[in-house]
């Protein structure tokens, strides 16, 4: 995506769509009478998103990262040249581990939350802060992927979009469980949506000034996305599977959906 020919506006549009899905998730929860319907719908969305994201990481993002880091090999093997990219991937994974389980240890992702864990407002705001970092890197992933290739960007955008509603749902439920008002819950949901947009803007601006920025941002964001899919979403799916085995099957549907869209976009 060329930032000099409407590309920046395009990135903003995709960032706004992703942020809007966060707001929609919060609205689903807050809207009177929609809570239980939202949970039934979101558990399948979580599973679908998990499968789609895992496929996107291993079929699109990691191969593109390797391509970027091996494009100009000079006297070193391909394995040696991608060490930096794999280090960034690991760093992205560990960063979210740090925020979710060290800085914000009360954070739980997914459609099901635990109100007894969020009675203290301080714990609620810490958890939302952890999600803010999480969603910021959602935006980083979207922008970095689009700047590499429009097809890759579109697939990554769909992967991230699938878990945006559950993010908004989670933030709103955390704030309500801590005794905050529906107004505050909506503001918290808007804040994580804004973080997604901020991630898009930061990568777009930095890449316009530093040509190699995307080659660093893409593998790092891949690590963040891998954590979300494998350590946040899949455990939530496994928990839901105890009561509804179909939820686990939807993960494979998500993978199949990725391959279908991959073929359609390539065509």
Description:
The protein is mainly α and 267 residues long. The protein has one domain. The chain has ten helices and no strands. Helix 1 runs antiparallel to helix 8, helix 4 crosses helix 9 and helix 7 packs across helix 8. The longest helix has 35 residues. The two termini are 18 Å apart. 49% of the residues are buried. About 4% of the residues have low confidence.
Summarize the structure.
The chain is mostly helical.
- H/E series, N to C? HHHHHHHHHH
Q: Quaternary status of these chains?
A: single chain
Query: Percent of residues in beta strands?
Result: under 5%
Which consecutive residue ranges, at least 5 long each, have pLDDT under 50?
A: 110-119
Individual helix count: 10
Mean pLDDT: 79
SS content category = mainly alpha
- Could you describe the largest sheet, including whether it forms a barrel? none
Shape: globular
Q: Quick one: how many beta strands?
A: 0
> Roughly how many Å apart are the termini?
18 Å
Question: What are the key terms here?
Answer:
about 270 residues; mainly alpha; 10 helices; about 80% helix; about 0% strand
């Amino acid at each position: 995506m060329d930032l000099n020919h409407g590309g920046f506006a395009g990135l903003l549009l995709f960032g706004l769509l992703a942020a809007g899905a966060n707001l929609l998730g919060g609205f689903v929860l807050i809207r009177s009478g929609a809570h239980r319907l939202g949970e039934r719908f979101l558990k399948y969305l979580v599973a679908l998103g998990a499968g789609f994201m895992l496929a996107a990481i291993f079929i699109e993002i990691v191969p593109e990262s390797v391509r970027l880091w091996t494009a100009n090999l000079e006297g070193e093997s391909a394995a040696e040249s991608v060490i930096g990219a794999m280090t960034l991937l690991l760093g992205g994974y560990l960063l979210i581990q740090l925020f979710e389980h060290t800085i914000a240890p009360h954070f739980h992702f997914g459609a099901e939350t635990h109100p007894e864990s969020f009675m203290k407002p301080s714990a609620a705001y810490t958890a939302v802060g952890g999600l803010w970092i999480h969603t910021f890197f959602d935006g980083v992933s979207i922008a970095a992927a689009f700047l590499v290739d429009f097809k890759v960007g579109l697939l990554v955008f769909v992967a991230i979009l699938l878990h945006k509603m559950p993010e908004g749902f989670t933030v709103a439920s955390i704030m309500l469980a801590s005794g905050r008002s529906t107004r505050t819950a909506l503001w918290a949901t808007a804040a994580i949506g804004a973080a997604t947009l901020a991630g898009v803007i930061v990568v777009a601006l930095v890449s316009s000034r530093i040509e190699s920025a995307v080659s660093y941002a893409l593998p790092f964001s891949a690590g963040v996305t891998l954590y979300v899919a494998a350590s946040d979403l899949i455990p939530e799916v496994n928990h839901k599977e105890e009561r509804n085995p179909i939820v686990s099957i939807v993960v494979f549907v998500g993978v199949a959906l990725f391959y279908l869209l991959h073929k359609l976009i390539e065509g």
